[in-house]
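Figure 3 (text version): structure tokens given as input.
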């Protein structure tokens, strides 16, 4: 919660009980004072009378001004809108005329077409026969086509015949030279590219604007060759304009640009151009005109045409404004008649309020909570009671020189917004913020502010309560929550992100890879020498090493990367937006830096290295579990290859695939134990020499998968050994076997061989567990023979000797399994108090055809005989091997040639 802003939610005036009680107490005390001092004194009455007359004058002036403004605004908006409507309507009329004029051009061009596609015309331009003129160029035909000029030209553009016609007198006159010159200088009128070519438009002549049309002369079938050109012309005189006006139902006036234009046409010409050929303007209050710029075939202006329209809409608007003025006057009179009495009443209330304020001031001075008034505009402190002065450490004269911003610590804009809400919405606003005392110290307060009227001005009455102690408690709770939140996502020893937070970051990286195609990389790192340092120097040294390694990595990584301690000496790194090659370079630098780092503890120097697995994260990465499994497998592969190296995960890497296969058993083995899906088999160990009535069996372990299929032990035993799960399996085997023996009441003259793992031998509580099982199931220890491998015994000889001796003291037997598998030494047999030597099957299976294997088995048998140990041969698969073993001699045989494993239960 920031101290620079007002806090809490905005509430109604009764939302804060303490502030409400304070205001209520002030109101009750002031009401009692009102009861004792009701009414106004005479000076106040005289002053109020004068104010009432002033208010009447000001009020009437305001009403008149308001009505004037409303009328002016309405008139401006209405008349402007109506004028726009008129302009738009006139614009549409002008466009309608343009359509009519265009249609008249089309009709005129069609008349020319009729003459140009006449076979007689086709023949006339070739032979110039006078009969054609006498028959066809008659007053009747000229009146019919309504032309003022006709020019016939042959294929060489020589005039065959030309004439001008006066349609009023029906007489032929000489063609104007200006028209001949115009035609001669405008070759595009004569050079038609095809039989369908047509040119029409307006041209400027000294006689006035003329509408002309030009067509190629062809036969009546519409075929060529083109033998000449026919040009007809029609003056746009008043007669023609009158016909166009009648046809378009508009008042039209045309003026040629080569003559002096009337004033309004000159104004229009200044606003017209080739791109803007229409101009609309009101001429008077009763008439609006639209001007059209006519251009010739060369796209040059030749004339201006005007259309006139009465302003009926505008005149209707003027009448509406007159009614509006009368309505405003009527409303003003009614409003004044209703409002003036209320205004006089308000003036009386003002004086009454002033007297109440004086009484309130006396009550506020004695209040226990801080109360002060500030001006709504300037925020100057107007009044402050003793409690507020004491809280902030100011004298009465000093505090009245301050503004709200001098004592409040916060964002001025936010404070302005909150106070504005009180003005607009009449809120009783309650907020928490900090006040600054005179000595510079800060105090937390809760303030309730409400709008009041003070000396005819808006003011705020603010009641404050000291909440410093409460804020301290809240701060302590908030810090505790933040600390707990940090601890939930970080490792307390190194301060790095913990496994849970790291996996969440990894999920985000996987999502961005799938959705946005961004590549990342995951690094799984294991400190190689941590266990040695931790065991030899203590946990304090180990913790110190982890902190130094964390600092070493943090200084090397990018700011965008995530470094986490996943547990023990394991670290994880997410390289965001990083290719596998770049991540490999960064990781190699980390490995090299760690390898060069000497860890010193109490004058001892240790070299430190790391085994690192690296895996790419891209759109093909399936999920969180798979990428973690791949990185862990790559890390273990690096450790198996000799440590202090980086192993990059490749999907087709057999070693990593084996590691991942083993890792899958980490979750399956505990689940199988919980669901009791392990099962026990037994295999007979048969005597080879002499008569031995004692039965001997080895207990074998199998696992049923979720589909009920039997899984051989070598599929899950290596994983259980690697991930420290074998001690759980050993205990399950012993408790299950003992329970079966107790229930089936097995014969006393039977020995059951049970294999033990290194985890159980190194478990200090395992012997206590075995003793408890013997006692609970009442199984004689002499019926149990524990087996440990030769490799395991040699790896920790002293530990193995002590373990074997303790169980033999209970009465159990012991066998040394896989003897002769490659690391055996007869010397250490003197130290191991075992009863049986189980000869490794790799030697036994070859003794028939391999003399060396036979000699090795023979040597083991002789040594065992001298040490009074019994021998058991493994992997005895046929009678020939049994015969060889009897000759050596070997005491017992075990294998498929003797008996196959069978379910115990």
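Below: residues designed for each position.
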């Amino acid at each position: 919660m920031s101290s620079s802003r007002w806090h809490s939610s905005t509430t109604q005036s009764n939302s804060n009980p303490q502030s409400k009680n304070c205001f209520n107490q002030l109101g009750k005390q002031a009401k009692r004072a009102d009861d004792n001092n009701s009414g106004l004194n005479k000076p106040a009455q005289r002053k109020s009378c004068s104010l009432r007359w002033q208010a009447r004058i000001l009020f009437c002036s305001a009403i008149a001004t308001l009505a004037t403004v409303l009328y002016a605004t309405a008139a401006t908006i209405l008349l402007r809108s109506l004028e726009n409507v008129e302009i738009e309507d006139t614009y549409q009329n002008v466009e309608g005329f343009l359509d009519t004029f265009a249609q008249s051009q089309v009709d005129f061009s069609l008349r020319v077409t009729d003459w140009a596609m006449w076979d007689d015309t086709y023949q006339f331009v070739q032979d110039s026969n006078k009969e054609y003129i006498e028959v066809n160029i008659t007053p009747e035909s000229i009146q019919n086509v309504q032309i003022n000029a006709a020019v016939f030209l042959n294929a060489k553009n020589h005039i065959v015949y030309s004439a001008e016609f006066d349609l009023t007198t029906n007489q032929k006159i000489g063609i104007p030279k200006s028209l001949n010159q115009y035609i001669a200088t405008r070759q595009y009128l004569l050079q038609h590219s095809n039989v369908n070519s047509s040119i029409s438009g307006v041209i400027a002549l000294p006689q006035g604007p003329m509408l002309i049309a030009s067509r190629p002369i062809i036969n009546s079938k519409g075929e060529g060759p083109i033998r000449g050109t026919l040009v007809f012309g029609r003056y746009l005189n008043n007669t023609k304009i009158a016909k166009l006006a009648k046809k378009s139902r508009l008042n039209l006036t045309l003026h040629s640009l080569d003559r002096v234009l009337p004033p309004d046409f000159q104004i229009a010409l200044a606003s017209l151009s080739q791109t803007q050929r229409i101009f609309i303007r009101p001429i008077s209050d009763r008439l609006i005109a639209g001007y059209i710029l006519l251009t010739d075939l060369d796209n040059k202006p030749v004339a201006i045409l005007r259309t006139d329209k009465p302003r009926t809409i505008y005149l209707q608007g003027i009448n509406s404004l007159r009614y509006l003025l009368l309505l405003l006057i009527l409303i003003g009179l009614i409003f004044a008649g209703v409002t003036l009495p209320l205004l006089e009443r308000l003036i009386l209330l003002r004086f009454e309020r002033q007297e109440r304020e004086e009484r309130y001031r006396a009550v506020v001075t004695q209040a226990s909570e801080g109360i002060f008034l500030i001006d709504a505009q300037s925020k100057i402190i107007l009044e402050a009671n003793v409690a507020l002065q004491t809280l902030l450490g100011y004298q009465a004269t000093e505090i009245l020189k301050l503004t709200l911003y001098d004592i409040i610590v916060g964002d001025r804009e936010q404070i302005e917004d909150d106070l504005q809400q009180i003005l607009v919405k009449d809120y009783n606003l309650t907020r928490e913020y900090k006040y600054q005392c005179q000595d510079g110290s800060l105090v937390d307060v809760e303030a309730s502010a409400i709008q009041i009227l003070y000396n005819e001005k808006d003011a705020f009455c603010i009641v404050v309560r000291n909440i410093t102690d409460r804020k301290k408690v809240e701060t302590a709770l908030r810090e505790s929550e933040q600390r707990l939140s940090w601890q939930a996502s970080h490792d307390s020893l190194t301060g790095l992100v913990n496994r849970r937070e790291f996996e969440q970051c990894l999920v985000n990286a996987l999502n961005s890879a799938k959705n946005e195609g961004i590549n990342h990389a995951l690094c799984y790192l294991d400190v190689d020498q941590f266990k040695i340092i931790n065991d030899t120097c203590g946990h304090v040294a180990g913790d110190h090493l982890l902190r130094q390694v964390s600092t070493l990595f943090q200084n090397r990584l990018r700011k965008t990367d995530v470094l986490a301690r996943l547990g023990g000496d394991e670290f994880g790194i997410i390289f965001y937006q990083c290719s596998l090659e770049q991540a490999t370079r960064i990781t190699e630098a980390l490995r090299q830096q760690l390898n060069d780092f000497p860890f010193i503890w109490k004058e001892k120097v240790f070299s430190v290295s790391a085994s690192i697995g690296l895996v790419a994260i891209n759109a093909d990465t399936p999920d969180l579990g798979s990428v973690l499994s791949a990185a862990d497998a790559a890390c273990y592969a690096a450790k198996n290859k000799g440590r202090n190296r980086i192993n990059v995960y490749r999907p087709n890497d057999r070693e990593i695939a084996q590691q991942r296969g083993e890792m899958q058993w980490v979750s399956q083995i505990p689940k199988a134990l919980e669901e009791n899906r392990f099962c026990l088999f037994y295999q007979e160990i048969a005597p080879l020499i002499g008569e031995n009535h004692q039965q001997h069996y080895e207990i074998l372990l199998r696992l049923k998968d979720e589909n009920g299929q039997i899984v051989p032990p070598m599929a899950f035993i290596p994983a259980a050994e690697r991930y420290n799960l074998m001690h759980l399996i050993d205990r399950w085997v012993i408790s299950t076997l003992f329970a079966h023996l107790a229930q089936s009441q097995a014969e006393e003259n039977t020995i059951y061989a049970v294999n033990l793992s290194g985890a159980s031998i190194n478990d200090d509580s395992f012997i206590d567990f075995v003793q408890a099982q013997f006692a609970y199931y009442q199984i004689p220890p002499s019926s149990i023979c524990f087996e440990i491998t030769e490799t395991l015994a040699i790896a920790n000889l002293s530990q193995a000797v002590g373990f074997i001796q303790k169980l033999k003291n209970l009465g159990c037997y012991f066998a040394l399994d896989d003897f002769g598998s490659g690391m055996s030494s007869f010397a250490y047999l003197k130290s191991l108090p075992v009863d049986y030597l189980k000869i490794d099957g790799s030697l036994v299976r070859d003794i028939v055809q391999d003399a060396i294997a036979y000699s090795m088995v023979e040597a083991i048998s002789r040594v065992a005989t001298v040490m009074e140990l019994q021998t058991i041969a493994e992997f005895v698969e046929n009678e020939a091997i049994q015969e060889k073993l009897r000759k050596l001699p070997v005491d017992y045989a075990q294998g498929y040639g003797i008996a196959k494993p069978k379910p115990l239960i």
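The two ends are 68 Å apart (CA to CA).
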